[in-house]
């Protein structure tokens, strides 16, 4: 394994959230890679994004400069080999020596780094041993004394590896470098390539809950998601179109990230981008349904009327005409109905003051509204609360300056009926001619849709 020397100052992760965008710079000494192309990447709410690319100069230095924040980044070459590292200050320098052959991790200096490298080397040892046993297994007939011995040895290797991952898991809390090491733990190769050890697959992902606060949204986080779906044989499930198994798979990944709302938002954005509705309608529907159950306030869904609304919502597609309706108890003068709203783009939100998800969404939308209102965005927020006085007090206390209305009939009202409302919050992005532009599920998806339309 080559050596990577790191020089940077240490500060605590807790201060990261206070950083705004600032000038970042990375200098990498890479004398063995002159003229080679490298890519600088990071993770965001949607997946892994490439910030910039650059070549190693003739004097052996690779340099990047960009606006960003301290955090976890990735350096990638044209063949897919990578280095994950964490910038704790706006400037960082390190050196790559030798061939760029395998994944490397850059950690703190000193004994802590030695301990982490221990885990990385142990992961590699067990994977190589499992691969060697698998090759030996294939050379002998099934149920022979030789294969029985190999199976016994393999199970021992598997047990040791499981204990190693559990040990790392127990030490990872609030330690970014431990969590980064854990993202590089992998499944051991199976002996019989015709069958999967489902127990070990499930156990493995119990030791990566997709909600580690320091790793959510990083490249390692998304790589782990990809591994999860690969081990769940998602391509086979999609090809067979097995709805029940697809639902169980989606429910499991949401359960593994349920304690972290940001993790779930990253997850649902990643899934909707990777498996779009036009090509993977069953999986997409399962993602939307599960996310709404986990992150919205559900109401009575058992009645025939509610089931009809849920079915109708599937037919309410992008590009279709959105129904006009009277804005009940509207606070804005001279705006009687949705069609009277004069804007290039209208964000229609259904919400309730009793729904934490609704309140959180309104807070986020306020900043977006300030940015895009002058560019043509208007927000129409329809509350389905039945207490008008409480609703008025809430709007006033929050200083919600967009168009506010309240249908005190709730789910029995006209708005909920024609827009198939079964839960809150819901978002509809509508053009000036009342055509549906988008039905964002997450706030990030909303930001992307508005930016694409108005910027």
Chain-wise SSE layout:
Layout: E1 4-7, E2 22-29, E3 37-43, E4 48-55, E5 61-68, E6 71-77, E7 82-87, E8 91-96, E9 104-105, H1 111-139, H2 145-171, H3 176-182, H4 198-206, H5 219-231, H6 234-240, H7 243-255, H8 261-274, H9 281-295, E10 297-298, H10 304-315, E11 345-351, H11 356-372, E12 377-383, H12 388-398, E13 403-406, H13 414-418, E14 423-424, E15 426-431, E16 436-438, H14 443-454
Parallel strand pairs: 2-8, 7-9, 11-12, 12-13
Antiparallel strand pairs: 1-8, 2-5, 3-4, 3-6, 6-7, 10-14, 11-15, 15-16
What is the H level of CATH, i.e. the homologous superfamily of the domain at 315-454?
Glutaredoxin
Give the strand line-up of the largest sheet.
4-3-6-7-9
- Backbone CA Rg: 26 Å
Shape: globular
* Helix content class: 40-55%
Distance between the ends = 47 Å
Tell me about the biggest sheet? Answer: 5 strands, mixed
The CATH class label of the domain at 315-454 is Alpha Beta
Q: If helices are DSSP runs of H or I spanning 4 or more residues, what is the number of helices?
A: 14
Please mark out the parts with pLDDT under 50 across 5 or more consecutive residues, or reply none: 1-19, 194-201
Strand content: 15-25%
